[in-house]
Specification:
Blueprint (H helix, E strand, L loop, with lengths): L2 H12 L4 H18 L2 H9 L3 H4 L3 H4 L16 H12 L3 H18 L2 H10 L2 H4 L13
Length: 141
């Protein structure tokens, strides 16, 4: 899926007023996911997204400071997730959660089913509940 198609779908699903807002929401969700996911998984997500969106996942998807081992995921739940997305998207937490659900729904269509299964498994159940129905299963905490 191309950048413009992803942003257009996010805008439509989240009912954001313009593409700039949809872009900001999408990047906010991707950057926050990158902090929550193991770096290898973030890298796989980045590989399946257009380069303009993959960049939001890349800083975390790289190696650790020593350059040898991948970085590990931060462990946080829905409250922290919502707060980080809200801060990055310049909105309130309730709106951030609606936007995150929309972005995740678009990602579900953009990424391979196998990668979405790995994403689902890597997220705690409370964040996983934002995934499209049928995907949300109990993940790790």
């Amino acid at each position: 899926m191309h950048h413009d198609e992803i942003i257009g779908k996010v805008q439509a699903l989240t009912q954001l007023p313009d593409r700039g807002s949809a872009e900001q929401a999408t990047r906010a969700v991707l950057e926050t996911l990158a902090e929550r996911l193991p770096s290898g998984l973030a890298g796989h997500l980045a590989a399946q997204l257009p380069p303009t969106l993959a960049a939001a996942l890349r800083p975390v998807a790289g190696a650790s400071a020593d350059g040898d081992t991948p970085t590990s995921a931060e462990r946080f739940g829905l409250t922290t997730f919502a707060g980080r997305v809200a801060a990055r998207a310049a909105t309130d937490e309730e709106t951030a959660l609606r936007q995150a659900a929309g972005v995740l729904e678009v990602l579900d269509a953009a990424l391979t089913p196998e990668l979405m299964e790995k994403l689902t498994a890597a997220l705690p159940a409370d964040i996983g509940a934002l995934l499209p129905s049928g995907r949300a299963t109990e993940g790790t905490d």
